[in-house]
Amino acid sequence: MSVVGYARISDDDVSPDRQQAALEAAACERIYIDRATGLRARRPFLADALASLRDGDVFVVTRLDRLGGTVADLLALVADLDERGVALRSLDEGIDEIGPWGRFFFRAASALAAHERTVEAEVGLAAERRKRDARQPRRQTVSRHRLRIARDMLADEAPVRDIARHLGVSERLLRRELERDSTGGGEDRADDTRPQTFG
User: Fold this and answer.
1) Which of 54, 74, 56 is nearest to 64 (CA)?
2) For the segment 129-141, what is each residue's pLDDT rounded down to a tens digit?
3) pTM above 0.70, yes or no
4) Where, by residue number, is the active site (predicted)?
5) Which of 75, 80, 129, 142 meets the CB 3.0–4.6 Å disulfide criterion with 177?
6) Which domain holds residue 184?
7) Which residue in the list 10, 15, 90, 182 is annotated as catalytic?
8) What average pLDDT does range 36-65 have in this prediction?
9) Model pLDDT, residue 110
10) Nearest-5° angle of CA 51, CA 47, CA 66?
11) Residues 96 and 38 placed together within one structural domain of the fold
């Protein structure tokens, strides 16, 4: 059995001394160190460390965030190590994948990752709906108040063309809404039953 350590230092870290000292104290026989910042930065020594692991080995990090990536990436890495018979330990978080706390942690993390994927999918669907709705022109309507004004003006024998201009809508829209209103097609149009004439 080999105990293999991995450290990642950010570009603004002066040195990996703290992580390296912690890994040495954890009896790591080999320690791989990357200098990288960001979730998607290249980590060539992480790849080397993972490739060196064998069945029965222990892979040690000071914190899980040293491995980088998303929760889903971390879970995929842990699943791969598990399939290969490699245990994972995180010193600062007290996680030992061999023990019951480690197994509980990664079950909880799996549930969180599934939740994260569900939320991302829902957000994506909502964004698609907003894009689709934005592409579809909204059906124009004329308010109930304006229709009352239009009826009053029609009763005074004003031409529909002039009424539409007065209300700031197109003549075609006004005629359509008056027709819908007279046949009960409007949402709340049923209180005025005076006959309408179109001039």
Assistant:
1) 74
2) 777 767 756 667 7
3) no
4) 10 (o-(5'-phospho-dna)-serine intermediate)
5) 142
6) 139-199
7) 10
8) 88
9) 67
10) 120
11) yes
